[in-house]
Amino acid sequence: MLALDADNVAMMAALMDEVGEPAFPEKLLEILRKLAGTDFCSAFQAEEDGSLTYLFACGYHSTIPGFAERASLDYARRYWQRDRVTRQMLSAVSTPRKVQVVRQAWNGIRDPEYRRDCYERAHVLERLTIYHSDMPRVFASLYRTRESGPFPISAVERIEAAAALLMAMLVKHVRLQGRPQTAPLHPPIQEIAGRLLQAGYALSGREAEVSAGLLLGRTHREISEKVGLALSSIVTYRQRAYRKLGVSDRRGLEALYEGISRA
User: Fold this and answer.
1) Bridge partners, residue 143, by sequence
2) What are the phi and psi torsion angles at 212 (to 5°)?
3) pLDDT interval class at 243 (50, 70, 90)
4) Mean pLDDT across the chain, nearest whole number?
5) Residue 77 has what pLDDT?
6) First vs last Cα of the chain: how many Å apart?
7) 3-state secondary structure (DSSP) of residue 108
């Protein structure tokens, strides 16, 4: 197995300073990028009642805003039970090692809806997941897109060398946080709203903000709390924005925004 060099060890030591802090998810992604060219990362906790809790997700997709967080939330809410590999890892009574690294290619995912929403639509090519089998049962996944290519063998070996320490820090982070906290969305609502306002559809500021929240995968309630509007107003601004943009649903809004981003 490939050993970590001095620079990688120094990076890991620096990450320890962020354990329990809000910046931990982003700092973790920075290290995963250097170790394995990771485009996105996500983390989850398996609960005793059989549910899965979303911890955080990081990474910016150039044409699908908020993809990492939205796909991770969708995964925790409904898709993880269709993930054969994760189900097997979480249901194992005992494992020879507390920490294991498992590789998963997009075309090895059998469920078409899960494969489409979490992989194909964003051209995610491969996942590398680090599972921690002891309590708390947490796992972190690293993803590479088609543009980056599959994980090189050397990258996999570096992650395997760092896996135990990474999981120890993630476990400590979860315990210090007390409860899962959401990482900041990237890009923020204001940036996406600005792009919509400049696209020539005559949206108002509020219509653009609500549309941006929908693009980030937020619920109406989450948008109302973020922008300070009543739930009924969110529905009104959404309907007005859809009429001006010529779309009828969120998928239409996403397709339109992808076109704006490429222009």
Assistant:
1) 40, 127
2) -65, -40
3) very high
4) 87
5) 83
6) 45
7) helix
Q: Residue 162: CB partners within 8 Å, gap ≥ 6?
A: 4, 8, 12, 35
Cβ-based neighbour number of residue 83 at 10 Å: 21
**pLDDT value, residue 185:** 38
Q: Quick one: tokens of 60? A: 């910016």
CB burial of 216-244 (b: ≥16 within 10 Å; e: otherwise) equals bbbebeebbebbebeeebbeebbebbbeb
Which single residue is written with the structure tokens 């979303």?
54
Q: Using alpha carbons, list the distances in angstroms from residue 223 to 60, 204, 210, 241.
A: 20, 16, 7, 15
d(CA 218, CA 237): 15
Q: Which of 123, 186, 184, 142 is nearest to 33 (CA)?
A: 142
Rounded CA separation 147/123 (Å): 8
Residue with tokens 């005559």: 202
Helix (H, G, I), strand (E, B) or coil at 2: coil
**Maximum Cα interatomic distance, the chain, rounded to a whole number of Å:** 60
Instruction: Fill in the amino acid letter for 131.
Output: Y
What's the full length of the chain, in residues? 263
Confidence of residue 93 (pLDDT cuts 50, 70, 90): low
